[in-house]
Design brief:
about 150 residues; alpha+beta; three-stranded antiparallel β-sheet
């Protein structure tokens, strides 16, 4: 009798869309994590780029400090100094806390969350409720020491 299956039954399961992978890291602009020694050179270039970003944010916060020193707020608002070029989260520190971080050339402060720590180039030295202090390592630490401007006395 020539019976044919209805069109829709012939469609295979492969036609369905695959679930999308989590894209949080990609969205935040991080490269994939790599440990292959062959990638060392690009890792170093990456570390230099990220250190440069953090140093630029440090310079921005120095300008912000000039304003805070005039106004003298109890807790002042700064800009997160993490390596993520797209991050500009406000971070609250007193001026004294800010000065304490700045006293160490390789130390930076970031918003209090793992998202603001790139463990390839830095590590957490202190966790406060409102901010974390990170220390640069390797080439980023060298760059930070070179860029350090003398503190006012
Ligand atoms: Zn950040």
């Amino acid at each position: 009798m020539g019976e044919e299956p209805p069109e829709e039954v012939a469609m295979s399961h492969e036609e369905r869309a695959l679930p999308k992978p989590p894209r949080s890291r990609a969205r935040r602009g991080y490269p994939p994590l790599v440990t292959d020694p062959r990638t060392r050179l690009s890792d170093e270039a990456d570390a230099i780029r990220k250190a440069h970003n953090e140093i630029q944010l440090r310079k921005l916060n120095e300008r912000i400090e000039e304003h805070h020193l005039r106004v003298q707020p109890a807790v002042a608002e700064w800009v997160c100094e993490c390596a993520d070029e797209t991050c500009a989260l406000p971070v609250g520190l007193t001026i004294a806390e800010y000065e304490a971080v700045r006293a160490e050339p390789t130390h930076f402060f970031v918003a209090p969350s793992d998202e603001h720590v790139d463990t390839d180039i830095e590590y957490v030295v202190r966790r406060e409720p409102d901010y974390w202090i990170i220390a640069k390592k390797g080439v980023g630490a060298e760059m930070s020491r070179r860029e350090q401007t003398p503190r006012r006395t």
